[in-house]
Design goal:
heterodimer; A: 120 residues; mainly beta; seven-stranded mixed beta sheet; 11 strands; B: 110 residues; 51% strand; globular
Chain lengths: 120, 110
């Protein structure tokens, strides 16, 4: 069973960089899924941020692409999100997930999510 | 910019049947978008219900089914139960690695 756990600061100041890590257990990050980040502002819907393959191939939401970097560390079986120049609009619960880009594209396993608040 | 549309809210009586839809602001949803559906209760992570239009995820009861109805993807819930009261999100795969979520439908069972 694939398990994902997000971690990182719960409070980030405006204009700074949001950094989160997703630790994967029960599955090798190099074994075939893509890995992604999704966020949900309080009381609002879900938004896909981006995805990465263990080889480093990345896909980003065009609306966030200029501020987002997703990276993978196969030695630690984890992947990370960096979102720079944050504003209050980036306040959200951030989820990590496994994604299948194969014959049946879907978000498969989800982390529990972590709330990040942008405030001074 | 692609917008995926969903009904903001819907209600169903216990035991009843409800169909939620997922459309595009411009164009039709087809199986080529691999529509998938996710259920989310307050404070919880989303749960995968349906993928590739009509394939149920492991452990999902057959009361939940997916289809294409006209120019939209659809999620049908038969025999609605109290614990089906949740937010439901559809996602479309736009190709080139890009996903777009719908705004979600808040389903009330009463």
């Amino acid at each position: 069973q694939v398990q994902l756990q997000e971690s990182g600061p719960g409070l980030v100041k405006p204009s700074e960089t949001l950094s989160l890590t997703c630790a994967v257990s029960g599955y090798s990050i190099s074994s075939g899924y893509y890995w992604g980040w999704i966020r949900q502002p309080p009381g609002k819907g879900l938004e896909w941020i981006g995805s990465i393959y263990y080889s480093g191939t990345t896909y980003y939401n065009p609306s966030l692409k200029s501020r987002v970097t997703i990276s993978v560390d196969t030695s630690k079986n984890q992947f990370s999100l960096k979102l720079n120049s944050v504003t209050a609009a980036d306040t959200a619960v951030y989820y990590c997930a496994s994604l299948d880009y194969g014959n049946n594209p879907r978000f498969d396993y989800w982390g529990q999510g972590t709330l990040v608040t942008v405030s001074s | 910019q692609t917008v995926v549309t969903q009904e903001p809210s819907f209600s169903v009586s216990p035991g009843g049947t409800v169909t939620l839809t997922c459309g595009l602001s411009s164009g039709s949803v087809s199986t080529s978008y691999y529509p998938s559906w996710y259920q989310q209760t307050p404070g919880q992570a989303p749960r995968t219900l349906i993928y590739s239009t009509n394939t149920r995820s492991s452990g999902v009861p057959d009361r939940f089914s997916g289809s294409i109805l006209g120019n939209k993807a659809a999620l049908t819930i038969r025999g609605a139960q109290a614990d089906d009261e949740s937010d439901y999100y559809c996602v479309l795969y736009m190709g080139r690695g890009i996903w777009v979520f719908g705004g979600g439908t808040k389903l009330t069972v009463l």
